[in-house]
Design a protein that fits this description.
Elements (H helix, E strand, L loop, with lengths): L4 H59 L4 H6 L3 E2 L7 E2 L2 H32 L2 H13 L5 H19 L9 H24 L3 H9 L4 H12 L1 H16 L3 H6 L17 H12 L5 H34 L1
Antiparallel strand pairs: 1-2
Length: 316
């Protein structure tokens, strides 16, 4: 039995009206979304500007009490001295670079080797299993890594190196290397995977083995991503806090000895932030000067990673 013509007409008009209403809602949503995204971008920019302004203001206050020349050229860092404190940041920079260098020695070969295996040798099933497990290392809290370095790695190293102190640079450097390995492995593997298969197939057609393809074709083609991942990982090692604060010690020394106690820039900030200095004192303002120096280090590393990535990407 056919419906009345008026009923059919009403149903069609109602459907058209509902469609128009949905379209209007969609248009309104599309108009609102750009403003929300702009607001989030402005918040992130303002946060960065606020951090930089705060660091600069407090750092200038610090340099009203300590000369810039002493800060960057003095070879002793004794801010808690009862007579006259010495504020030469070179020992803190030395400790930071020692730990970062050890971490890079550990992480770079392991990370790149892991990336080559995941990209060139592992099956899809193996990659789906190994890669998430490898990336779990990046989710472990750094305080856990710190106590792991102090209570597990250090005793093993002391059996091998009797002169090694309880607090040293070697143990936290190795553990930080383990921590940043997933970053190098994951980013490098993504770069290697993006290399066109035609390059691999051409090398295989010429009689190259899988190892030769990986070393002579894939790695050179993905070198921009690999170097960028290494630089970013090293900058992460430079800014690491809890591992060096727990296992590195609090003795700023301007030397390349990795068996003794050290203090990094981040570890000093942690020490003072625990309440060892009163508000408004020179020691209090020193944490901002150290933090600004650390900010410059990490900023330069990130800019270097971007420069290298763009430079090598233009060549391929």
């Amino acid at each position: 039995m056919a419906l009345p013509e008026s009923s059919n007409s009403f149903s069609v008009q109602q459907m058209i009206q509902q469609k128009k209403q949905k379209k209007n809602k969609l248009i309104q949503t599309e108009k609102i979304v750009p403003f929300i995204l702009l607001l989030t971008a402005i918040v992130s920019v303002l946060t960065t500007v606020g951090i930089v302004v705060t660091l600069l203001a407090e750092t200038f206050t610090f340099f009203n009490h300590v000369s810039i020349k002493e800060f960057f050229t003095a070879q002793k860092w004794y801010p808690f001295s009862e007579t006259q404190g010495s504020f030469g940041i070179l020992p803190l920079i030395s400790g930071t670079l020692k730990v970062a260098f050890i971490a890079a020695i550990v992480a770079v070969p392991i990370g790149i080797a892991s990336a080559v295996f995941l990209s060139e040798y592992a099956t899809d099933r193996t990659r789906r299993i190994i890669k998430p497990i490898l990336e779990v290392l990046a989710g472990i809290p750094t305080i856990v890594y710190g106590f792991f370095a102090l209570t597990f790695v250090t005793p093993i190293l002391r059996d091998l190196i009797p002169s090694l102190e309880i607090f040293n640079a070697l143990s936290p450097g190795i553990v930080i290397g383990i921590m940043i390995t997933p970053m190098i492995a994951s980013l490098s593997e993504d770069a290697m995977t993006s290399v066109p298969k035609s390059m691999r197939e051409g090398a295989y057609a010429l009689g190259a083995t899988k190892l030769e393809v990986a070393i002579k074709i894939v790695i050179p083609a993905a070198v921009s991503g690999i170097i960028a991942s290494i630089v970013l990982a090293v900058s992460r090692a430079i800014g690491e806090t809890m591992i060096v604060a727990v296992a590195g010690g609090s003795t700023p020394n301007l030397s390349w000895d990795v068996t003794g106690s050290i203090q990094t820039m981040t570890a000093y900030i942690v020490q003072v932030s625990q309440g060892d200095a009163g508000y408004g004192t020179t020691i209090y303002y020193s944490i901002y000067a150290v933090g600004f120096t650390l900010f410059i280090f990490t900023l330069m590393m990130n800019l270097l990673a971007q420069f290298i990535s763009k430079r090598f990407r233009e060549e391929y």
